[in-house]
């Protein structure tokens, strides 16, 4: 099938995610034939840099040969069996290795996507409090500018109106903590010190609702869909102390930040804190299959461990929970991280990625607020003549995306925020090419 035929067939039937389908009239989808390493290859033979790791999940690139081998080997055994009342070596070994990421979190509950893991953790927290004598603890708090997915509880916890506004009347209330200072990265003066007056305001709101709060959910250090904004890990230390003193759970949403994106295996490590719930997905399987994991403490697990007729069971289920092919990919991913020193390499290379974004800003004068942490760098499109942001209605981010794709880079922005979030093992020369494409695409975008 030729590219034109594929695109026509796709647009006749497929409703694409996170899209206004009318946009596809002027920016049709690229017809992907294969993917390898840091590239997507189109049906017409064009190589396109996957600069955002296919929605942040391809941590070690496409078609990694070791993961392909592991998934193929698992296929020879079985592809999926019901997880209720069965067990298998792949999932048991994966669970052991995941529990080693944060040793006090050694119970693992599986689902098949990030939003569901958020719902699971929030439901577990509610049921835990109800079963331990605190039924009034039924509220949640979260950070201003946060994002936690698009199911109902996840939307309620988030603070991205673009996704939640159509459903506002159906969403339960969630206390939003902030606003607070966002910073440029680890070299910022604000990295090691969270503004005391901002904490006092957050603490005041927390204290007012302490008797009713079940949990606080957050993306540690880096807020992804909220335009790749960074905040001081010191806030997490303060939240950990307050939550412990008030019998409130901390839910660390590491769906995007986990597996090295911020330069640590877990972003919570920047604050040296241990949450009560840890949520993993995306890079968990290196993008080879849908899977998410909710890790929690023995204390939480034991609140559900009782005779069946007590009604204390946690009866959430997903058909593909513990999906064996995804589990095989995840297990091999963890082995690759260990054997190839992926985290150490991220720390060594992160400054280079940020320097490239700064280079783009210097060359074009069309970017402001350059920021980065780990293997992520971001900045906001501005008018090079005035330095001011463009009117949102002009959709300069969308125009930039189209220009960059024509030039060979898949750089789907967040509004007018441009960001680099490539696979961790992307070659230096490819990152150089990415920077040059970004320069040319921005220049074309801001000429008008």
Radius of gyration: 22 Å
Reported CATH architecture of the largest domain: 3-Layer(aba) Sandwich
Please give the CATH class of the largest domain.
Alpha Beta
Described by the principal axes of the CA atoms, the overall outline is globular
Strand line-up in the sheet with most strands: 4-12-11-10-7-5-6
How many discrete domains?
2
The total of beta strands comes to 16
Pattern of helices and strands: HEEEHHHEHEHHEHEEEHEEEHHHEEHEEH
Supply the CATH superfamily name of the largest domain.
Answer: Type I PLP-dependent aspartate aminotransferase-like (Major domain)
Share of helix among residues? 25-40%
Major pleated sheet: 7 strands, mixed
Query: What is the fold named in CATH at topology level of the largest domain?
Result: Aspartate Aminotransferase, domain 2
Mean pLDDT: 97
β-strand percent reads 15-25%
Question: Could you explain how this protein is built, in words?
Answer:
By secondary structure, the chain is of the alpha/beta class. The chain has two domains: 3-63 and 342-445, Aspartate Aminotransferase, domain 1, CATH 3.90.1150; 65-339, Aspartate Aminotransferase, domain 2. The protein is built from 14 helices and 16 strands. It has helices at 3-13, 53-56, 65-77, 89-99, 114-131, 152-157, 161-164, 196-209, 234-245, 298-302, 324-339, 342-364, 396-407, 428-445; strands at residues 32-36, 39-42, 47-50, 107-111, 139-143, 175-177, 213-218, 222-223, 229-230, 249-253, 277-280, 292-296, 367-373, 376-381, 409-410, 417-420. The strands form four sheets. Strands 4-12-11-10-7-5-6 form a seven-stranded mixed β-sheet, sandwiched between helices. Strand 1 (32-36) and strand 2 (39-42) form a beta hairpin. Helix 3 (65-77) runs antiparallel to helix 11, helix 4 (89-99) crosses helix 11 and helix 12 packs parallel to helix 14. The longest helix is centred in the C-terminal third of the chain and has 23 residues, at 342-364. The protein is globular and about 65 Å long.
